[in-house]
C-alpha cells in the first residue's frame, strides 16, 4: 500500500466524517484522487465500515460488556479459524481476537444483564467442542477507547483556601 493511502487512512481513523474534498486539501491532492483512493480501499475491504465511538455511560443504557479469555484446541487443517468463526457468528459477540500468551482467543460480548452474559458463556461458548476453558472479565468502566478518552471528571469549583 502506498504512502498516500496510509495518510488517508490516518485521517479517516481520526475522524471518518472528513470529506474527500477536505482530505484532498489536507494532503495537497485533487478531490478525484482522494475519492478514487477511498473507493479502492473500500472495494478491497481495507476500509470495512465507518463507525461512531459512543460513550455509553452518558446514555441511559444498562448494557453489560465482558471480555472472555478462551483456551481452545485448534482443528487440524483450519487451526483457530474454524472455532473463531463459530464464536463470532453469535449476535452477542462484538469482537474476537487471536492472542498470544496464556489463552488463545479474546472474545468481547455485550448483553443486557449479567445473567444474560453468564448464560452465553455457560450454555453457548463453553459447550463448543474445542473450547477447553473460559475466564470472564466484566467491564466496569471505559476510560479510553479507540484513542478517545472518556473524561467524566467534573471541574472542582471549590474555593482555594490557604493558611
From TrEMBL:
Q: What is this protein's name? A: Lrp/AsnC family transcriptional regulator
Q: Which residues form the HTH asnC-type domain?
A: 1-81
Q: Which SMART domains match?
A: HTH_ASNC (SM00344)
Coiled-coil spans are: none
Give a GO molecular function annotation for the protein: sequence-specific DNA binding
A Pfam match is: AsnC_trans_reg
Its domain of life?
Answer: Bacteria
Taxonomic lineage: Bacteria, Bacillati, Bacillota, Bacilli, Bacillales
Q: Which UniProt keywords apply?
A: DNA-binding, Transcription, Transcription regulation
* InterPro entries reported for this sequence: AsnC-type_HTH_dom (IPR000485), Dimeric_a/b-barrel (IPR011008), HTH-Siroheme_Decarb (IPR050684), Tscrpt_reg_AsnC-like (IPR019888), Tscrpt_reg_AsnC/Lrp_C (IPR019887), WH-like_DNA-bd_sf (IPR036388), WH_DNA-bd_sf (IPR036390)
Amino acid at each position: 500500500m502506498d504512502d498516500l493511502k496510509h495518510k488517508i487512512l490516518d485521517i479517516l481513523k481520526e475522524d471518518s466524517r472528513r470529506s474527500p474534498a477536505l482530505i484532498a486539501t489536507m494532503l495537497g491532492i485533487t478531490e478525484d484522487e482522494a475519492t478514487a483512493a477511498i473507493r479502492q480501499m473500500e472495494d478491497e475491504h481495507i476500509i470495512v465500515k465507518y463507525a461512531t465511538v459512543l460513550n455509553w455511560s452518558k446514555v441511559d443504557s444498562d448494557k453489560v460488556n465482558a471480555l472472555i479469555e478462551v483456551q481452545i484446541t485448534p482443528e487440524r487443517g483450519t487451526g483457530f479459524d474454524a472455532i473463531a468463526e463459530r464464536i463470532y457468528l453469535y449476535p452477542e459477540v462484538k469482537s474476537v481476537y487471536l492472542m498470544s500468551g496464556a489463552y488463545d482467543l479474546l472474545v468481547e460480548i455485550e448483553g443486557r444483564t449479567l445473567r444474560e452474559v453468564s448464560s452465553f458463556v455457560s450454555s453457548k461458548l463453553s459447550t463448543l467442542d474445542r473450547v477447553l476453558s473460559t475466564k470472564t472479565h466484566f467491564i466496569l468502566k471505559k476510560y479510553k477507547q479507540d484513542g478517545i478518552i472518556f473524561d467524566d471528571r467534573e471541574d472542582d469549583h471549590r474555593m482555594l483556601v490557604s493558611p
